[in-house]
Amino acid sequence: MRPVAATGTGAYHRPPMTRDRAQEALAFGAGTSADHADGIRWVDYENISWNPVFCKRCDICIDICPKATLVLRNDAILEEENCILCGLCERYCPDLAIEMIPAAVEAHAVRAAEAKAKAD
After folding, report:
1. Cβ–Cβ contacts within 10 Å for residue 12, how many?
2. CATH top class, domain 19-119
3. pTM
4. Residue 100: CB partners within 8 Å, gap ≥ 6?
5. Could you state, in order of their start, the residue ranges of all structural domains in the chain?
6. What does each of the 120 residues of the chain score in pLDDT, given as a tens digit?
7. Rounded to whole angstroms, what are the CA distances from 34 to 37, 58, 114?
8. Which of 29, 54, 73, 99 is least surrounded by Cβ atoms within 10 Å, i.e. has the fewest?
């Protein structure tokens, strides 16, 4: 582990979330989620919705992902390719800041059932 300088800057230092930083994070993804009517903006990706207000950037979702699909860039959680919709990120997020998109989960289940039917 790298030493952290006395000024508080270092490899693991992150400034606290502010409204300005939340707005920067909201610029990522496909836009506001239509599934959430709670007045809080969620960012929809292909398979997950991410809430930059709830998220404290603890990196648990990034560490738990078996396919290394989630990354933290510019203070935002991003979904890259190869998500297998295992749901571990949603299950282990202590802030309830990640949710699987129901349509993606349903489509994945249909594809899995079709593949199983072909194999039988």
Report:
1. 8
2. alpha beta
3. 0.63
4. 47, 48, 49, 85, 87, 90
5. 19-119
6. 444 444 444 444 555 556 665 555 555 444 555 555 556 678 888 899 999 989 999 999 999 999 999 999 888 899 988 899 999 999 999 999 999 999 988 998 898 899 989 887
7. 7, 26, 28
8. 73
